[in-house]
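Backbone geometry tokens:
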Amino acid sequence: MLIIRDLVMGVRRFDEFQERLGISRNVLTQRLGRLIDDGIVEKTLYQDHPPRYEYRLTEKGRDLWPILTAMRHWGDRYAAPNGARLLLRHRSCGHVAEPVLHCPECGEDVTARDYTVEVGPGGDGALLRGGRGTPAG
């Protein structure tokens, strides 16, 4: 997730990832390769001699942004005694924004307690905890 976080922050080049993350070249190569194989990251040549590449999120990778944002928000709340290290500012209105889940139909903000869980078209019911249709919380 740290590589994806850095991609969201604008990091594109191998050496930048290595410097920011402090991991060995072989480990970084393996992790980037896995993200490429999974369709989360794409690799693009930006220099021919010697060959150099930059990495960018695919649509599948960009769809991880809400998850990263939720994790950052959780960390800011429970693991940052001096306050958030980063703020998200909404470009349209200029205000600091926090992640909020809402119902796409009525627009109401929702939490885990506002949902019931049911088997979807690809499920068989095995994931429902104890057969109940309410999430933990």
User: Anything to note?
Assistant: The chain has two domains: 2-62, 100-137. The two ends are 25 Å apart (CA to CA). The CA atoms of residues 45 and 53 lie 4 Å apart.
